[in-house]
Amino acid sequence: MYVRHLQLGSFRSWEHVDLPLSPGPTVFVGRNGEGKTNLVEAVGYLATMSSHRVSADAPLVRHGAAQAVVRAALRRGDRELLVEIEINPGRANRVRVNRAPMQRPRDWLGMVRTVLFAPEDLALVRGDPTERRRFLDELLVSRTPRLAGVRADYDRVLKQRNALLKTARLARGKAIETLDVWDGHLTDLGGQLLFARLGLIADLAPQLTEAYARVAGDGALAAGLGYSSTTPLAGDGAALRPDCTLPTAAELTEAMRERVAERRGDELDRGMTLVGPHRDDLVIHLGPAPAKGFASHGESWSLALGLKLATFALLRAEGEDPILILDDVFATLDAERRAALAEVARSAEQTLITAAVLEDVPAELRGGRVEVGGGTARVLDPGEVATSDER
Ligand SMILES: Nc1ncnc2c1ncn2[C@@H]1O[C@H](COP(=O)(O)OP(=O)(O)OP(=O)(O)O)[C@@H](O)[C@H]1O
Ligand SMILES: [Mg+2]
């Protein structure tokens, strides 16, 4: 699938932009701050309905506007899909597909798949668990759209249970009975999420090992993945072995239920839910140690790149190339890593690349070109690309 046409209204710095796009690589080139990342961020939003740069939607709406609109024509083979997402910060988004409103906006999730690699991804290796949980869950939903509902339900139950825990200390009696009911919902949904996350990690780990070896070159330590869970059965953080057997969703629910019961006293004291996938972490391993706190800056970058290439390989193996988005990453990579990334980027059905300096982008990816500057984005025709390359 690829984006054939992108149209934005009041999205970030763009009041209005209208851009035909082609399959294969396209470079968005222009000076710092002209709005290149904003353009590809909008494509990423189509896939996840969230931004890779901010956790809330408000910054995505142009200053002074009430809402932003991202519209796209998507091509799969000879079929075309029109989508329009109206971003309403603080309220539900509105999604229209082929001009018909969608009942639930989240039903759109999974319809477009992107893999986005950006400087922010260093946080996958070095940042808080929140970043890694988000990475896992977004990928889960893009592989299995049904899980968007499980995740939303889990978040809702968690919120209500936390509210109840806060008041339960005072109320006791009745509140405790209600808590038992919420425990059932929480562990049922939690078990499903844990099961899905473990399955994903098991699939992703060998891809990461392979991608990291390619990126980091000969003699590098092996990269792996583990899961560190507040539900002991779901993982203690050790790297997952390829031949391991994973627990079932029912077993995970049961294990989570036991753990929740054990920790009820602490939860009442602290007024919050301490057990569940919302407190877990994906552990990235490099050789014998977890990468976080040990890996060098360069190794951390390679791991982040490896994770994204692994994601690309996983989604590709499931039948369709995701749209590859490379935001400002070539300048910071050395020759070996650049080559590893360029190889994938060249083969993807569509790759969108941003760069302030064209020369930072490997020559074989410099086909399609969009010039971004002065509040406009303009697609260069092949003649103009040739002339601009001679300059
Ligand atoms: N909600 C918004 N409303 C208006 N302008 C915004 C909004 N959000 C971001 N901007 C502006 O967008 C610009 C940044 O755009 P963007 O991050 O796409 O730049 P870029 O071309 O990728 O630059 P660089 O090469 O430095 O990465 C900034 O000038 C910022 O002030
Ligand atoms: Mg940028």
From TrEMBL:
<dbReference type="Pfam" id="PF02463">
    <property type="entry name" value="SMC_N"/>
</dbReference>
<feature type="domain" description="RecF/RecN/SMC N-terminal">
    <location>
        <begin position="2"/>
        <end position="355"/>
    </location>
</feature>
<keyword id="KW-0547">Nucleotide-binding</keyword>
<dbReference type="GO" id="GO:0005524">
    <property type="term" value="F:ATP binding"/>
</dbReference>
<keyword id="KW-0067">ATP-binding</keyword>
<dbReference type="GO" id="GO:0006260">
    <property type="term" value="P:DNA replication"/>
</dbReference>
<dbReference type="GO" id="GO:0003697">
    <property type="term" value="F:single-stranded DNA binding"/>
</dbReference>
<dbReference type="GO" id="GO:0005737">
    <property type="term" value="C:cytoplasm"/>
</dbReference>
<feature type="binding site">
    <location>
        <begin position="30"/>
        <end position="37"/>
    </location>
    <ligand>
        <name>ATP</name>
    </ligand>
</feature>
<protein>
    <recommendedName>
        <fullName>DNA replication and repair protein RecF</fullName>
    </recommendedName>
</protein>
<keyword id="KW-0234">DNA repair</keyword>
<dbReference type="InterPro" id="IPR042174">
    <property type="entry name" value="RecF_2"/>
</dbReference>
<keyword id="KW-0238">DNA-binding</keyword>
<comment type="function">
    <text>The RecF protein is involved in DNA metabolism; it is required for DNA replication and normal SOS inducibility. RecF binds preferentially to single-stranded, linear DNA. It also seems to bind ATP.</text>
</comment>
<dbReference type="InterPro" id="IPR003395">
    <property type="entry name" value="RecF/RecN/SMC_N"/>
</dbReference>
<dbReference type="GO" id="GO:0009432">
    <property type="term" value="P:SOS response"/>
</dbReference>
<dbReference type="InterPro" id="IPR018078">
    <property type="entry name" value="DNA-binding_RecF_CS"/>
</dbReference>
<keyword id="KW-0963">Cytoplasm</keyword>
<dbReference type="InterPro" id="IPR001238">
    <property type="entry name" value="DNA-binding_RecF"/>
</dbReference>
<dbReference type="GO" id="GO:0000731">
    <property type="term" value="P:DNA synthesis involved in DNA repair"/>
</dbReference>
<dbReference type="InterPro" id="IPR027417">
    <property type="entry name" value="P-loop_NTPase"/>
</dbReference>
<keyword id="KW-0235">DNA replication</keyword>
<dbReference type="GO" id="GO:0006302">
    <property type="term" value="P:double-strand break repair"/>
</dbReference>
<comment type="similarity">
    <text>Belongs to the RecF family.</text>
</comment>
<keyword id="KW-0227">DNA damage</keyword>
<keyword id="KW-0742">SOS response</keyword>
